# Entry
Amino acid sequence: MTDAVLGARRARLPPPPGHKFPLGKYRLLRERLVAEAVAAPDDIAASAPASWELLATVHASSYLERVRTGAMTDREVRVLGLPWSAALVERGRRSTQGTVEAARDALAGSGYGMNLGGGTHHAGRAAGRGYCLFNDLAVAVTELRRSAGFDGRVAVIDCDVHQGDGTAELFADDPSVFTLSIHGGANYPFRRAVSDLDVDLRDGVGDDEYLGVLSSSLDEVGGADLVFYLAAADPWEGDRLGRLALTKAGLAARDGVVLDRAAAWGAAVCVVLAGGYAPDVADTVDINLATARAVAERAAAQRSVRDPAARAE
Ligand SMILES: [Zn+2]
# Structure
């Protein structure tokens, strides 16, 4: 079969602007995806930048104008946590469009799409926060509704260790989107918006407790036609910003719990990476790679089930 195993999308990245943000993980992940035959090079499509017009369907035009022209205030840059540069803006736009395209892949193809980036869940309507310039999830939902005729129910399953405040803010008044955030209760952000379901975990929570809480939280979500899964690496025990104690095996089990549940719902799944701040970036890449492998296996299995029907037509 020559079909793409994984409809992975990647955002092109500029060199790091001398910051701790682990830009290197994106290139390393792409290389390992190919080296370990999780994806062929041709399966990984570069993302175009999201248009300003599309971004304006979610974000305040005054905020976008300051981002576009480099006129962000000192306070805005502090809250964002990254210095402004044209390259940063370009990366944010490409990362956002990657989620749009991965969600389209999920709805149109095997039921799965993955952005090797994205999950910028702290960005609100008029503010970038916590390394997140634009909210890719909100932009993707808007775009799918606007141009792809999608009118189904959406569930955001946010397993980043930091609460998804921007996503909660942007979907607060949208009853068709269920936002679940499962995160460290004592961790950033310290001023929060309210998700449909927020789960505050205490510091040091490990695999068993996490997986139990995740499973019962998914019971409360109930179902969806499209799932956005933020498969972050930062709940890992060695993460610098995480404060939880999940092992790599526990994180792989977490992926399985979410993907199994989405399959049981009959939902298409768009997977995004979100955070990961291991001291050695290779550990973050290990975790992301395991997620991508799980997604690729499920996408391939879905195709093998579907192919006989396709030939019969
Ligand atoms: Zn995070």
Summary: Strands lie at 8-10, 45-46, 112-115, 154-158, 177-184, 197-201, 226-230, 268-272. The pocket of zinc ion is lined by residues 160-162, 232, 234, 274-275 (CB under 6 Å). The radius of gyration is 18 Å.
